[in-house]
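User: Fold this; tokens only.

Assistant: Input:
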Amino acid sequence: MAEFDFERRLERLFAEAPDFADAQAFAERLERRLDRGWTARRWLIGTAGLAGGVIGASQLMLFNVFQRVESAEQSARALSLGLARATPSSDMLSVLSGGYGVWIAGGLAVVAMGFAISRVIEEI
């Protein structure tokens, strides 16, 4: 019985950590140091983002990306007109009524369920 009392008393002593005299000062010093680190990180990330944005904008202007996008758009229009003339026109309803519409709807339902499940798992 004496061993049991000793073990309970020993467990109680280890469960209650003693308070140090400078615990409050230590906590405040640690919080200041952590806050200072986050401020420096925010400034560093903001500066890097600004520099990256300036470099990206200069590269876009340097290589005339906007003019290339306009010419690509014109090429895409010409290609789509050529494909529309080359392929025979088919009625979309006749394709979907052959049973393919059910398979497409089922596939989209599976994809939607996958997105919903991944969202639920992410929230947990």
